[in-house]
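note to self: the first set is below, dont mix up w the second
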Amino acid sequence: MNLPIPDLRHLVRMTDDTGLFEHACGAVPRRAHGYCSDDAGRALALTCGWEDATAERLSEIYLAFLSHLHLGGGRFALRLGHDRRLVDGDVSDDACGRAIFGLGVAAASTASRHVADGARELFSMTTSFRSRWPHAMAYAALGAAAVLGDDPDQPHAAELLRDAATMIAQATGHQHWPEARLRYANALLPECLLAAGSVLGDTRFERTGLRLLDWLVAAETAPQGHFSFTPTHGWTGGQARPAFDQQPIEAGAMADAAARAFTVTGQPDWAEVTIRAAEWFTGRNDLGVAMVDERTGGCFDGLQVDGPNLNQGAESTIALLTALRQAHDVALRQAQGCVA
């Protein structure tokens, strides 16, 4: 495995004392576009497990930002302008789910006690969240799974996790996939089932999650052996591949799900899938081009038919860092002969 060591340089560049800027022009933050609660949630989930002073400071900023945008219950405002005013009062189910995900992961982290305590308090107010959208539920459920892994005596978190997994499993039935077409962050759905199966001790969820993830890996693997991810407009069987614009979030979600499958099953094939997902960023993709900017530590925003989109927004860089961390972690666990 020849993957770069993840570092926080670009997240630092994209973060001020209010929050994480959503978009960039090249590597320079676009302040006019402001900040998003979904980016803060995912960034918090990433940095809260990074044991250094820079990561701790970033985690504090993202947690404070989510607290500021919390509207009550499981609802969070979507956007804040650079002038620190809410933008139109928008609320997005997906963004709420991602915020709850970050809070749950941070609540269970050990890197910073005061961040964990603050995240736990805010997470406890959000467990009533429910959505008709599977991706939103899956994100929130992964936050609940993290909390339950740290403290199983959390009945409301368990209900949230079970409700999300049941929604996805029932939509799947005996089909290959719970939705009519692949959309975005696709591996998130089987990861939710794997988390529910492991945390709740329900082997039905685990079996369905593994079946879905097996199918997705096959569907998104090119004949040459690299990942050819679902483009922004989605994909269904029979449509041409490769297709573009492919988003880094797909590779990050695949790395997360495969790493969880490795933890659940102990099967080395899942470690290989995790590493292959991370290698998409370093050129093992349909165009053979790197998606990492080695000068900045950032990630390009998408793989287009004529090459990378050279802007380096928050979502893309979070996906890069997530995939690299998962790949290095599974490689280390393999070398040490341990899984959990």
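second set (the one i keep forgetting abt)
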Amino acid sequence: MLRHHFKAMGTEVELLLEADGDDSPLFQAEDEFRRLESLLSRFQPDSELSRLNRAGEQSVGPELLELAELAVAARERTAGRFDPTVHDAIAAAGYDRSFELIDGSDCRPAATRPRCGGRVGVDRAAARVTLEPGYRLDLGGIAKGWAADRVLALLREEGPALVNAGGDVAVAGRPWPVGVDTPDGTITLELDRGGLATSGRDRRRWRQQGQERHHLIDPATALPAQGDLLTVTVAGPTAAEAEVLAKTLFLAGSAEQATAEAEALGVPAVLVTRAGATLLAGGLA
């Protein structure tokens, strides 16, 4: 088993490849992660995403075009609960720079309250993305899952593979055991294809004007989401789709509602409440 660890997209990345000898595919996979980060990061001022956010409209490469299209489609099918135009809301909450640069000091409040729900036009034929004036894109979570899927597609040509990008997991080739931490211990899920993703308020959090903030924005309020959920872990057909599902369930408003939605959709999910309870849904027992 070949293993490789590195940091990209603001998180720890782990690659596993069941193959003998040559580990060059793992380093090529790392290069691909870094290339995608240089295109899609909202923290790099010269990234393609940052240039689009400044211009409001421009021709884009195939990666940003595909990802913008996926994000817009996800917003439509989740009735706006998943929203790629939360950029200014998450920055206003204090997450306005790479997370390792948030040193724990009290973040300054925004001068004006931001909005979510801006129009995003994706013209595939012209390879052009247009943003409604006053809105910017944040593709952080879905971009991480999508990147894991892309890198997995490269590695699976060499053998069974697993890509873990900070909890966004993509697997192929054979059953892989993946652990999900809960207050009651680790639950091990076996994945032979597709992806796994977790959305939660347990890690990326800070303080603003004495109040705890986190990075999961509720588009309905343009503020960090409230509710009784701490984390939601979901299995999906891809890591990118699992990201959308996990965030959508987290924003359901309550553990009860999220559990009911996971059951109705048949989505395997592990939900942990802020009170420390662990709930299983979508066929898990």
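remember for set 2: The longest helix spans residues 24-40.
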